[in-house]
């Protein structure tokens, strides 16, 4: 028998999307979030067509499209010479080829659009300021004050819900640090493109930049190797960590270096991945998004995979018993996540190439037209979540 009520741990992108997706099937959700308020946490994100298609189905895309940017293209550029390496068209091309838009926005913009929809939905109840540290469903039912058919752990890399899933994946430091900051358009260097996503490539480091239209700023993410000990994604790096970051961009274009040197308030994000493990306990608890399969950001699909997870899980729960739905969910989603991990690993190798490998990369990419490179993304962007899993 399909479920009637679910508890969702975490009110981030995965949790809020799950609540809306469940409500679409008439399933009530109780959402528990330890924060007292959903504040502007994080930085920018890219919302690719496979995710925007779902957001449209859930009724939140129009709110996003009124404020976000739909970039003309995704560009690969040398971080030292600023020479263009390759590009993939977006904008109108994305709508025509993949059937949904490609946009960039602040994470808080997406979260607000989801939150507004959740707040307006009678089947969704949000509980803020509730720190959840549970070991079974009964304990959570006492907090909720009602029976719960299922618990969905959407509480990220450091998930508390892991304790309820034997063999759950464990976080593993990737060896990379993401430095995140923003630059106001009015003071941004001219090399930052106001209409596109740009990835500047270098040896063992890269920098991604794109406009956040609603903030009149550029979102910057600089990724280099480093050590990871903090679980706080809003920590400013210390002097030694900043110096290590700057060494990772040695030999880059001088204007990029000046921009990095001036950002004393950049936040220090050690990047963690999830090891292989079970996503559910076989009966009443399941993990989604980063709690199940956090991955490196080299494919820009972290938020999209959380959105896909939530939408597909809800559809399976609407027509199957919990045990059947959870088994099918893991079986259906695991191959796609694995393939995206491979893509992210390949992108990391390509972005951080040096010496002869870098020269070969640039030559190969320069010989391929943009439409050919776009075809490589079809399996990601054309994906239609919820289409009859086996």
In words, what does this structure look like?
- It is a single chain.
- This protein is of the alpha/beta class.
- It has a domain at 5-69 and 105-170 and 274-349: FAD/NAD(P)-binding domain.
- The protein has helices spanning 13-24, 49-57, 61-65, 91-98, 107-119, 137-144, 239-247, 254-261, 290-293, 302-317, 322-351, 355-366, 370-375, 378-381; strands at 5-9, 28-33, 44-47, 73-78, 84-89, 103-106, 124-128, 150-153, 171-184, 197-202, 205-212, 217-225, 235-236, 267-274, 285-287.
- The strands form three sheets. An eight-stranded mixed sheet has the order 5-4-10-11-12-9-14-13. The protein has a five-stranded parallel sheet with strand order 7-2-1-8-15, sandwiched between helices.
- The protein is globular, with a radius of gyration of 21 Å.
Question: What's the helix and strand layout?
Answer:
Layout: E1 5-9, H1 13-24, E2 28-33, E3 44-47, H2 49-57, H3 61-65, E4 73-78, E5 84-89, H4 91-98, E6 103-106, H5 107-119, E7 124-128, H6 137-144, E8 150-153, E9 171-184, E10 197-202, E11 205-212, E12 217-225, E13 235-236, H7 239-247, H8 254-261, E14 267-274, E15 285-287, H9 290-293, H10 302-317, H11 322-351, H12 355-366, H13 370-375, H14 378-381
Parallel strand pairs: 1-2, 1-8, 2-7, 4-10, 8-15
Antiparallel strand pairs: 3-6, 4-5, 9-12, 9-14, 10-11, 11-12, 13-14
């Amino acid at each position: 028998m399909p479920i009637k009520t679910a508890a969702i741990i975490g009110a981030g992108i995965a949790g809020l999307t799950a609540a809306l997706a469940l409500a679409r099937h008439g399933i009530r959700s109780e959402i528990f979030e330890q924060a007292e308020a959903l504040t502007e946490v994080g930085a920018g994100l890219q919302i690719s067509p496979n995710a925007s298609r779902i957001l449209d189905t859930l009724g939140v895309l129009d709110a996003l499209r009124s404020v976000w940017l739909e970039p003309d293209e995704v560009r690969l550029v040398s971080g030292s010479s600023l020479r263009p390496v390759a590009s993939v068209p977006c904008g109108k091309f994305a709508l025509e080829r993949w059937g949904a838009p490609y946009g960039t926005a602040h994470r808080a913009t997406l979260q607000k659009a989801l939150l507004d929809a959740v707040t307006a939905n009678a089947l969704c109840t949000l509980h803020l300021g509730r720190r959840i540290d549970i070991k079974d469903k009964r304990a959570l039912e006492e907090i909720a004050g009602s029976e719960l058919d299922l618990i969905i752990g959407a509480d990220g890399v450091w998930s508390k819900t892991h304790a309820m899933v034997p063999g759950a994946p464990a976080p593993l430091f990737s060896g990379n640090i993401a430095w995140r900051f923003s630059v106001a358009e009015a003071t941004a260097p001219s090399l930052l493109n106001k209409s596109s996503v740009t990835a500047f490539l270098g040896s063992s480091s890269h920098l991604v930049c794109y406009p956040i239209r609603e903030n009149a700023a550029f979102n910057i993410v600089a990724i280099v190797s480093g050590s990871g000990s903090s679980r706080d994604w809003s920590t400013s790096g210390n002097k030694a960590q900043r110096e290590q970051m700057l060494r990772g961009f040695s030999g880059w274009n001088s204007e990029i270096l000046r921009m990095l040197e001036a950002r004393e308030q950049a936040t220090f994000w050690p990047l963690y991945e999830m090891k292989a493990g079970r996503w559910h306990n076989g009966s009443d608890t399941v993990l989604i998004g980063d709690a199940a399969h956090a991955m490196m950001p080299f494919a820009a699909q972290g938020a999209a995979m959380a959105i896909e997870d939530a939408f597909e899980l809800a559809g399976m729960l609407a027509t199957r018993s919990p045990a059947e739905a959870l088994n099918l969910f893991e079986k259906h989603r695991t191959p796609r996540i694995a393939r995206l991990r491979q893509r992210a690993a390949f992108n990391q190798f390509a972005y951080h190439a040096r010496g002869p490998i870098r020269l070969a990369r640039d030559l190969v990419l320069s010989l391929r037209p943009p439409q050919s490179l776009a075809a490589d993304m079809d399996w990601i962007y054309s994906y239609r979540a919820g289409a009859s899993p086996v």
